[in-house]
Amino acid sequence: MSSPYQGALTCVTCQIVFETGDTHREHYKTDWHRYNLKRKIINLLPVDRPTFESRILNQQIKENEENTKSSIYCTICKKSYNSQKSFDSHTSSKQHKTLALQSDNEHKDIGVPAAKKIVKPVENKLVEESDDEYEDVDDDEEWSEVVSENNPIVNNICLFCPQSSENLLQNIKHMSDAHSFFIPDIEYLVDMKGLLVYLGEKVCQGFMCLWCNDSGKSFQSIESAQAHMIDKGHTKMIHEGEALLEYSDFYDYSSSYPADTSLDDYRIIEDVNSQLILPSGARIGKRSLMRYYRQNLNPNHDWEAMKETKLNKVINHYRHVGWTGTFPAAAARKARDLKVMRQVQTKMYMQLGVKANKFQKHFRQQVNF
After folding, report:
1. Domain count for the chain
2. 190-215: string of b/e by CB count within 10 Å (b at 16+)?
3. Are 248 and 159 found together in one domain?
4. Which compartments is it annotated to reside in (predicted)?
5. How confident is the model over 332-349, as pLDDT tens digits?
6. Is residue 304 part of a domain?
7. What is the dihedral of CA 71, 73, 79, 83, to 10 degrees?
8. What CA–CA distance (Å, rounded) separates 191 from 108?
9. Which pTM value belongs to this model?
10. Does any domain span residue 345?
């Protein structure tokens, strides 16, 4: 008997099933998915969407209540904190110490203790719940309980050396130029920052080599793990075999092969434009019209009107240094392997659920009177 989830689009992290590919791809961009990813890093179970939204709402209510009290303001980093505990955690971070040292060099009379300043309470209105709030939560420090403060990616530091950069893009360029680190199958990546933060947690918390993964030597510090990766030439991310399933939440290979190979996918226009449109979107014209196709008329393609994102900038930088892209056959092979592994995982979850149901020895009578 086949599983009802076999062949369906699923999210392993959030443990949900999707009906269409569009909702599947949009789910990877939500803060709910990123929140569960960060819980997965520290081996916590995922939460459903109602629980996540209730936590966000409770956090907002708590913040509004705390803002009625006096807040603590850091004059060096120009940030305010609602409690002494959060302020002490901030002052112990590497970013604050670096800025405090720079400020101390410029003004000798300013030190770390001078960063504390009591601010009068500010009357805040209860903010309405919207999608923009979820993005703000991810940009601020509300995720500090699930992401380590010494995560190199969060602090714009290289995964393999202490080099610091201005932003995430500069950090990625440094890792590719100095350490030949390239994100595999970047064309199919849907959450670049989430993947890099996850790699940072493996390095700074698990002290793991990104290439050896669990099968290699164990290390006792982040410095020893970084030294191993540089000395052995392991400044790269393994993305094959069992590692495909580990990083599956950050990738989407659905565009590497047609979802349905029926004849409806092949749209043929014979008399109007004399073109054959393939499922991939490529257009094949008649040989008799070759001289017209060779003309450089700069057609207005859809991809030319797209706004350049961070991912596009990284891809352009990779191509500038000689990267040629992922072979479609290799991407399709990974997609098939990942599909098989997900089917096996779904089957194991089903067997585990059936086995857990047998633990209950007594059942309540299902009566309506």
Report:
1. 3
2. bbbebbbbbbbbbbbeebbbbbbbee
3. yes
4. Cytoplasm
5. 777 777 777 777 777 777
6. yes
7. -40
8. 43
9. 0.45
10. yes
77 inside domain? yes
- pLDDT at residue 68 in the model: 58
Are 200 and 154 spatial neighbours (Cβ–Cβ below 8 Å)? yes
pLDDT of residue 87: 79
Collect the ranges in the chain with pLDDT lower than 70: 1-8, 66-71, 82, 105-146, 256-308, 358-369
Q: Is 100 within 8 Å of 111 (Cβ atoms)? A: yes
What local confidence, expressed as pLDDT, does residue 160 receive? 92
Q: How far apart are CA 94 and CA 92, in angstroms?
A: 7
- What pLDDT, in 10s, does the model give residues 210-226? 988 877 778 888 889 99
Does residue 366 fall inside a structural domain?
A: no
Chain position carrying tokens 């290390």 = 219
pLDDT for position 158:
92
Task: For residues 211 and 346, state if they share a domain.
Answer: yes
Domain span at residue 82 reads 69-122
Two tokens at 268? 């043929």
How many Å apart are CA 88 and CA 177, to the nearest integer?
A: 37
105 and 202 together in one domain: no
